[in-house]
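In the laboratory, one determines a bound structure by crystallizing the protein with its ligand and collecting diffraction data. In a computational setting the workflow is compressed into a single prediction: the sequence and the ligand go in, and a structural description comes out. We illustrate the idea with manganese (II) ion.
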Amino acid sequence: MTHILEKYEVWFVTGSQHLYGEETLKQVAEHAQAIASGLNTNEKVPVRIVFKPVVTTPDEIYKVCQEANVAPDCIGIIAWMHTFSPAKMWIGGLKVLQKPLLHLHTQYNRDIPWATIDMDFMNLNQSAHGDREFGFMLSRMRLNRKVVVGHWQQEDVVERLNIWTRAAAARHDLQGARFVRFGDNMRQVAVTEGDKVAAEMQFGYSVNGYGVGDLVKVLNEVPDAAIDQLCAEYEDSYNLASTLRKGGDQNSSLREAARIELGIRNFLETGNFKGYTNTFEDLHGMVQLPGIASQRLMAAGYGFGAEGDWKTAAMLRAMKVMATGLPGGNSFMEDYTYHFADPANPADSQLVLGAHMLEICESIADGKPHCEVHPLGIGGKADPVRLVFNVAAGPALNVSVIDMGNRFRILANEVEAVAPPHDLPKLPVARVLWKPQPDMQTGCAAWIQAGGAHHTVYSQNLSVEYIEDFADMVGVELVTIDKDTRLRQFQNELRWNEVYYQMKGGF
Ligand code: MN
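The predicted complex, in structure-token form:
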């Protein structure tokens, strides 16, 4: 997971034409090479930026687009028109291009050279109108792309490019990705259901069911020595409850939890899966519901969704890929319970308590987690081992994917996590408290009006822009709830989107 971005590359493609002569084209190539190499060596850009020879004819453009489509490590194209590249030349290539496109609207020089500027300079450095010609064609063809404006050495330009490359890496990672669904859905639950055929067409990943017995077989084959070793790792990594330690009267629960983690990990590795779902209603032959196992497998980069929630499992995997190497974490999450607060006390804020029965990723833990065992209360299995921790204060994001029947919808709500105002000594699960933006009433009402799920991906290190870029690349609706959200406008946006996506589906 740590190095997943290193093998990926983005192609830097510069458009021009033959009108200006060989000398100008030579300079175009030199400038393009300098920009590509500047971006490539910038440590804020997490993938390789590969310079491609300047394209000047429809055939060259078509060829580079086709090559990008089949290059296994190419996750997208950055296009820039240094000069003027008549855009009818681009139709053939853009028609077949299947990789994400970033239109970098920049120029080689930052400033106008006031004292020396002449018509030669103007003819060479004309992306201000060359990129408009290119932009027209993309709009004319109704093609999604990100437009980044500014000098290529500017920090904010590089950051926007960084965000796009990470979203492109997540999209690329999902193409052909496989997710396991152990058992089916939690019975009668609606929002975790959805059209897996449509999801594979839209996002590129497949979800397939496996009997819990297939997993139990693998669990039963886990050797004792491996369980010993993992229990020792638990003891080193966490504040382990004394009853769970070697010789403690609940040590067998810890050993069972370790068996489950090793078994699921083995199953995922053997089948080359990128994530999984399970449900507490279908654990036939398993001793406990996986708790610490799911928490640690998420931390290792696997997507996970409880109660059969494969959409959230895939989104979590995608967000973990986007966030590779960034400080902070991403976890499966659920809006669990509320603190509506005392209106007479201005210091008492309205809060959401996010948690799950067990499965919160340890990548978002504030400090060393406690490893404990407690009864679950539902599911009728033995007490499951879990990691218990708080989550640090700071800005965060909740992201949900739902199936609206005629399309998928991604929702993103900016939130502000706060340190727990009180101890929670009897709460035996990992938890986080947050204030939704723009406020509790508007944030929750907008979420519910949009049909947002109770399951989300909680992110400490991704902004809405990552999700925006990702949604754009996979052609999925995104609705955002942030500090500027006003309910009336938001509800209109939902209505307008309904019409837009209904029409788009018919194209
Ligand atoms: Mn749940």
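The mean pLDDT is 96. Keep in mind that any predicted model is a hypothesis to be tested, not a measurement.
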